[in-house]
């Protein structure tokens, strides 16, 4: 039994649930059997990967769904061994080069070279190019992106690249201009609801529309999250009821508790406790950016007026540092401490105004 | 080494002095031309050793009791080597500890349980060997000592030919490794008793095997030593004492040779020595000076008290080096002496200024000499600080009031930044902690919250820490920026603590325990977990963020049976969080102290025992809770070994990743 997310993932461009027009365009694009390099971007959970897989299927047929996980090791010029996992079919190769950290440049060059240099044997029945799918391109180092630029041109005859990322802002302009950019926006609430309803129907479940709407809103229109939530609801309680509480993930609850702890008391002692909680979140694989984002959202609901702006500005400042710095905890902690200071002052001022 | 032996009350001083070149011999006129005094460093005597130098102590001591003999070139270290427990400069409690161990393990004849091993650690020159030797004498047992033999390794052609001469069959090529020799030595020392000589009246058969210098092979393969020790533990009959000097910078002899698990396995007792306290060092030096003055008849000039204090502080708890420096500095017929010490004559070492301090303002000149003097104590060691103290210095940030007249005032709108003068130089503190600035900042970050009471202050402090990290963000400029980053972190932390802005506002925070930083562990765990998540759940084809924040947490909520055990275990571990508020976190606070349990106890005890002779300034500082006193004036250096092995290893790992970045 697989997850609903995987079970009911559409497998062809024709079966996609939303953004039909875009699906048609994609279909037309590959109709002639060839396509330029693609840069697919959009928020997480919008269906980028689904569309890419559909596209590949359109190109190569069902063969692309036979996936195998390969463990590749690449030797860098500096004799360093880089281990990386790839997912491949006979026709395409999917790799997340940022797994290799600072050596992503080598991964890109070497992997694409090996793929591009191996010719397809039966070119009559197949396309004369392979597809390399690079995920998380926005997390590549600048070096790797420049290497990619060169590679794209060099192996144009034998391989096509599909780049997949959340935002193009971190992708260098030369790459953006070499690709056909395809933006996959989030589905609307209604679209999410209809997908949920469809899935539940296929599962033989009754999904009240109110619950579907709640899930859609709570998931932030992230379809993956919505489906996971829906499945979690199913585990929690069935038959569904309209005002059923939607289970949240542990880390979200934990983060909320942390935010409450910050708001309820501002003292060095409390900062120490918060730090311990931050550490706990970090050890549970929650990336620091997500932590600071979640904290801000929670904290902002406790602020009003000009304080909101101040907190948001501060959060942006420390998130920037978080991205650039080495040790996330310094910046997370500085943000928390700063918020405590501002919030305390705000509360005291408010109290004074109240008294007089 | 030689002097370590002799410091330990070896009876052989008279014998030795004939063939061991005394360190200062050449400084005396008439023997050889005086050399520039550079070689009076920390190794006074030539590194030569006496093979199996275990003469019975009784015969030796009487001759030595007739204090200074006519030999002027005898190193004072040997001449004034301790002969009784009372003369040891080591703290009484430590001596007792060693004594109890020795007494309990010397008389195990009745209940034979195999060999027992004692490990003595401590900085060099703190009297480890001396303690063993003195105690052995008092307990009436012999010390049999191992020393690395000079094995024939490189031969001249002649001797080589001789060795392989086909005609002489008796000159067999025989060579054993040092390790083999060591094993032999242990076996023999263990099995065979000392021969009864005529002179030895009531020679007991009790003996202690002492190992101070280890065959080099052991450093490469500590396993060899452990095997030998294991067999010794089974068959041994007499106590075996290892002495390992640990220096702070990098050399982790004791940890390498005797890792914790081996210590536990073989029940090795470990007693670690502290550097000699300045007060007992002072006592010792003045005793030597007076004795020397009484006998030498003017040939030796008596250094005044300030010079002695200089020596004390310069030696940082190393008796041997202090005595050597003393001997050197009291040679009055050396022209070089004058020039070296005149610099200091002018200034009075005010107790409060004994440590280092920042040279600034009008008093610059006088403080400059202070700094100079500090570094100029001949034979002085580089002062170093235990991490515990270094952190304490930054966190407690002692200040000093300005003399009323010269106090610079900030304008009114900046008055909240008004701070009294700092008593320390943060950069120097970090440097002396023998630690990278990055790691030091981490330690600070772990511990600073306890020392703040105001949220505004703590916000500012944390911002400085964040600044510091940000400064070192750029990989290419990191090496340069590291120092600045540390400066920002330490100084920012000190400045932002407004509760400690004034010299007299310091007693608000009592003693606070310090802890090791969690971050290294946390970030390692984070990386490991992320990696594990990706490799375990690669079949979902998700990018890490959505995998970790969406899929895994929900998988934990679903009862999806298709996962393999590794995945289930991982989800159990990682995707679940303890959800009741303020449940204790999984991270244990690792207190930053030594294994020595009596950190605070020894401190307070020291206060009692030393009160009689403690000078006023010492008392003032030692009653200060915690390690905030200046480095040299502290009564006792609390044994707070940083034990940075693991953390440093982690850090190195991190650095490694960065180094492998190639930019071409």
From TrEMBL, chain A:
Encoding gene, per UniProt annotation: RFC3
Function: Subunit of the replication factor C (RFC) complex which acts during elongation of primed DNA templates by DNA polymerases delta and epsilon, and is necessary for ATP-dependent loading of proliferating cell nuclear antigen (PCNA) onto primed DNA.
Record keywords: DNA replication, Nucleus
Keyword Nucleus: yes
PANTHER family: REPLICATION FACTOR C / DNA POLYMERASE III GAMMA-TAU SUBUNIT, REPLICATION FACTOR C SUBUNIT 3
Matching InterPro entries: AAA+_ATPase, DNA_pol3_clamp-load_cplx_C, DNA_Rep/Repair_Clamp_Loader, P-loop_NTPase
Residues in AAA+ ATPase domain copies: 34-186
The protein's name in its UniProt record: Replication factor C subunit 3
Oligomer and partners: Subunit of the RFC complex, an heteropentameric complex consisting of a large subunit RFC1 and four small subunits RFC2, RFC3, RFC4 and RFC5; the RFC complex interacts with PCNA. Forms an heterotetrameric complex with RFC2, RFC4 and RFC5; this complex has ATPase activity but is not stimulated by PCNA. The heterotetramer of subunits RFC2, RFC3, RFC4 and RFC5 interacts with RAD17. Interacts with CNTD1; this interaction facilitates crossover formation.
Any one GO cellular component localisation term in the record: DNA replication factor C complex
Organism the protein comes from: Denticeps clupeoides (denticle herring)
MF-aspect GO terms: DNA binding; DNA clamp loader activity
Subcellular location: Nucleus
Listed SMART domains: AAA (SM00382)
Keyword Nucleus: yes
Cited Pfam families: DNA_pol3_delta2, RCF1-5-like_lid, RFC_C
Stated family: Belongs to the activator 1 small subunits family.
GO BP annotations, alphabetical order: DNA repair; DNA strand elongation involved in DNA replication
Top-level taxon of the source organism: Eukaryota
UniProtKB/TrEMBL annotation, chain B:
Subcellular compartments: Nucleus
Keyword presence, ATP-binding: yes
Protein name: AAA+ ATPase domain-containing protein
Similarity-based family: Belongs to the rad17/RAD24 family.
Polar residues composition-biased segments: 53-64
Alphabetized GO MF terms: ATP binding; chromatin binding; DNA clamp loader activity
Organism: Denticeps clupeoides (denticle herring)
Swiss-Prot/TrEMBL GO biological process terms: DNA damage checkpoint signaling; DNA repair; mitotic DNA replication checkpoint signaling
NCBIfam families noted in UniProt: rad24
GO cellular component: nucleus; Rad17 RFC-like complex
